[in-house]
Amino acid sequence: MDHIQLKCFISVARTLSFSEAARRNYLSQSTVSRYIKDLEKEFGVKLFERTRREVSLTNEGKLILPYAQDIIDTLNKATSAVSQLHNGSGGRLRLAYDSTSVDYPAKCLRRFNKKYPDIAVEMVKLSGSDSESAINSTDYDFFFMLRDMLPDNDNIDSEITHKDNLKLLVPKSLKTSGKNETGVNLKNQKFVLLSEFESPILYMEIMDIFRTFHFSPNSIVEFDDVRSVYMAVSAGMGVSVLPSGLADSYSATDVRAVDISGIETDLTYVMAWRKNNSNPAAHLFLKTVGRGNIADDEEYVL
Length: 302
Known about the structure:
Layout: H1 3-15, H2 18-24, H3 29-43, E1 48-50, E2 55-57, H4 59-87, E3 92-97, H5 103-115, E4 120-125, H6 128-135, E5 142-146, E6 156-171, E7 191-194, H7 200-212, E8 220-223, H8 226-234, E9 240-243, H9 244-250, E10 255-259, E11 266-274, H10 280-289
Parallel strand pairs: 3-4, 3-5, 7-8
Antiparallel strand pairs: 1-2, 5-11, 6-9, 6-10, 6-11
């Protein structure tokens, strides 16, 4: 059997008319009749009861009809998916990112949108505590996150997108003192941090800095978003520790980013995805931005 035979069977079953089925499929009535006879021969049963005045489905025909419809629907979906994969027309993509990796996803989106402007993209920020459950679900196509947040799952593939390090974000009025290699006396500072709930790996790295410099902060205020952290530092509520990409981007007339010397503060970021993702738009996205296709110094003309 082939899909044309099945389409003719479905048309006859829906209209109970061979002539109407022939018209809908741009075939002759004799061709439709031949296709139905071929199907009946293949299944070994009658699919229709036919008289001069009416056509009706047999019980066997009623049983086969939903399966035939499923086959045609699946074939139509596959045809549409292949068309989207090769032409990039239409489709939808869902990306998830953590609070600290937003710069790199933006680079990827600029490149992808320039090539496939008709594909709708949804961006969702996930807290660190939500990332593991989200990446194990089918809710998102790609995840941008710190590598240490990746779950141990053989069905997840990933690649390193970029590396970063940590910097202090301080009020511009804060004077350096040379008490340590950062030029800032950390022991005397109040700290304003992105919360452990929002970014547990970043929070852990910051705690390691405190232990390396042998002190415990007198005061830590936590916020669940980077903008609030920046506003608190700007208001003089304390200093913060952020990835350099974020710290530098938030540096303004009232705050500045300070290097942290004498300690390793490297961070590694990844883009992760499910290996069995069948979304055609996801294949296009990976082909466009994956495997090092985005350079750190790449310029985009919008």
